[in-house]
Structures are given as C-alpha cells and as structure tokens.
Amino acid sequence: MAHRKAGGTAKNLTKSNPKYLGVKLYAGEQAKTGNVIIRQRGTKFVTGKNVLLGKDHTIYAAKDGVVTFKNTRKIGYDGRTVIRKMVEVK
After folding, report:
1. pTM of the full predicted structure?
2. Which of 20, 31, 45, 60 has the fewest beta carbons under 10 Å from its own?
3. Is-contact 67 23, C-beta < 8 A?
4. CATH number at residue 58
C-alpha cells in the first residue's frame, strides 16, 4: 500500500548555474594583457592579431591595446564558405 495518496512527480526543480557567456569588451575599449574579451561555446568569434583562444574557447588579449571586430571568410572542411566575426587587439 502507498503511504501517500497520489503524489505527482516534481519536474523542473534542478537549476544550473548561469555561465555568463558573451562579449565582455566591445570595439574601441582598452584591453590589457590577459583580459577576457569573449566567453563563448564553440568558435562563433575567431581570433585575430594579439588575441589567444583558451581551451574553453574563451578569447583573451595577448597584448595591451584597443579591441576591434571585423568580418572574415572561413572555408569549412566541406568547402562551404562562412563569414565569422574576427577579434583583434591593435
């Protein structure tokens, strides 16, 4: 026999912590060495001059300077051409 009468299951009770992804320094802002510019999942933004890519795809500054963004063409493994945003520090 049941000890409780028709108790429903509880859904949506598990909560994951926020990951705080996105652009941290915008175009024209000053970046110091080691400053995080973008936190991302995958490479939506690609690296240019004076920026490095972390193992979790975080883009950060390798030198002091001003953050700039521009479009660049990338060719995929299947020959498709896609346009990605490139991040640079000048």
Report:
1. 0.81
2. 20
3. no
4. 2.40.50.100
